[in-house]
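Before a colleague's protein record goes any further, I have to sign it off. What it holds is a sequence and that sequence's fold in token form. Would you go through it and say whether the fold makes sense for this chain? The record follows directly below this note.
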Amino acid sequence: MSETTSTNEKPPLNGRRALPPNNSNDEENEVPEVDPFGLIPRGFNPKDYLRVVDIYMFKDPHEINKQQHHTDKYYNPKLIVRRGQPFQIQIDFNRPYRPETDQFWLEYLMGRYPQQNKGTYIPILVGNVLKPGEWGAKITHRENNSVRLSIMPSATCIIGKFRLYVAVWTPFAILRTRRDPATDTYILFNPWCQQDAVYLDDEKEREEYVLNDVGIVFHGNTEEIKSRSWSYGQFEENILDACLFLMDKAELELSGRGNPIKICRVASAVINSRDDNGVIAGSWNNSYDYGVAPSAWTGSVDILLEYYSSKQPVRYGQCWVFAGVFNTFLRCLGIPARLITNYSSAHDNNANLRLDFFLDDEGKVDTKLTKDSVWNYHCWNEAWMTRPDLPVGFGGWQVVDGTPQETSDGMYRCGPASVQAIKHGHVCFQFDAPFVYAEVNSDIFYSRMEKNGTQVIEKIDTTHIGQLIVTKEVGSDGMKDITEEYKFREGSDEERLALETAVMYGVKKQTTRDTTYQPQTDIDMDFQVQKAVLGNDFKVTITFRNRSRNTYTATTYLSGNIVFYTGVTRSEFKKHSFSAKLQPSSSSSFDVVIKASEYMSDLLEQASFHFFVTARINETGKILAMQKATILEIPTLRIKTKGELVAGKEMSVIVEFTNPLKQTLENVTLRLEGPGLLRTVKKDFRSIPMNSTLTWEVKFTPMRPGLRKLIASLNSHALRHVYGELNVQIQKP
């Protein structure tokens, strides 16, 4: 009977490999406590030999290991260290250790099938000297029955959770310590170590891109840049385990987990739920039944913990949610990372560096023919690492994107793509550089189909796409413009050269030779949208400048659309046409009033409008075209504190909101969180009548002193993207 049970436990045979894939950090193997060399003689008693009584890990936040390894913020009781940098442990034996006769060594194991050549079984002999960046151990102190060891993990070792055993040699068997989860050791990437692939040489940048657990998401559009805080929470309880689980979910072999390129590539696929049941399900259609609206999330922690426990995609996300969670994952594992916003981001379905907007005879956009779209903004991430797989000079910041847009090698993922390679047009280097290049460099073509099937290009806009690329400043909440890191100045020789290089490497760039393009050059048209608060009327002003000596008449058409921030139209709420008389050598302006009653019923969560203005010059038949996105001002939440702000003392936070709409808000949800202060709390309100104010008080006890941030969001069907935040300084008791 015993024979059958043992054969049942064997993994299923596979003709291609002797061992099954080792891609779970969680699974374990049985490690024998007594490993005999052969027959053990009768009188052998393990207790006669050196025996480990206790192992002390120095794993508390205030102790040497977590302090030196910058891991003291992790809310995790186990030892967490970074690779390529020594850490200390102490072993207590049953008697004093005698180096002349006693022999012991350490064993670090990961996964169910540990193997030395895969880096998942690491035996470490105790030597006299530590070599930088290589596995080793040396005794630094001996006292009574104890020895203090300094252990150096390799600067290229795999990252994750290792199990520790201490093995003692005796003449007849190896004696090992019993499996003890308390001695588990997490090893992470080390941006402080020069030999690590993620080494970053600036201390302020390391504090921002690795250790800061709050960030800023820039959204809105170039005319009106908006920002909101996002709690990354990479140090919160269970987040480290949740991030390691993501690599298990992506089935990344344990042996590949020392390579940040591989980790980023698989993570960009597993962050979204398309094709692998990953973390977040995207939804861009404004109905979020059975889930949380993307705008309601205030940070990554709730999303990652829900996924870790349910193993099912969390609903719902849009680009900044994917990017926020991805940033938490990268920073948690020790890879420097930042969240990027690209304003007027091209989603070019066939990556030909050209977005086609087709106009009908009247000059209106033909929505059936037009497949490409301009996102008001799109968020992705950059991760910092060397790229030994590319020629020299393409390391540094790499674009990674977890938002599912297009497939790459058969899965919804994107990156890592070198920012430097994108700037210089070297899009031949892996991964997905042509797609990112198109997101920041496409041109917009407005064209019209003639009755005989020829395509007439009415206007080419070369400056609209990727006009501003930003991230949070290091050490402050300000905005840093990094457009120059992605592209040369518009119209410069270097920009042309980068484009020619990209085309040479296979980015499709259609020429205008096969189509006729003769724009009207002696008239300029522009329009401005008045800044407006949600629920109010506002106006659009269209200006013509006639630089010729002729009098022209322009049949002008304005189309106002309510759009998703991805530039996809939900509905046209305003159509207005008029005839404009343009006198020679003069400018003329025309106002179109937009009433609140025209847009309020269809408004989407980002309160985002898209205006197309087209004008046909009757005397020449030429068309002028222009488009702009605009956003309404959305009211904010007010946050204030009550009571003393002292660690260990109860305090209160009060969130207030006044309903500015001319209607009652139904089914309102408020969320409040503060990384390192309080876990997300939420409260539902049935309704808030117009002009009335809602007040919500939350009591809690902050545990740690320091500067912290409170972030709140309000969400309802009629009103989304309402945020508030407050910096609080918690004093020492």
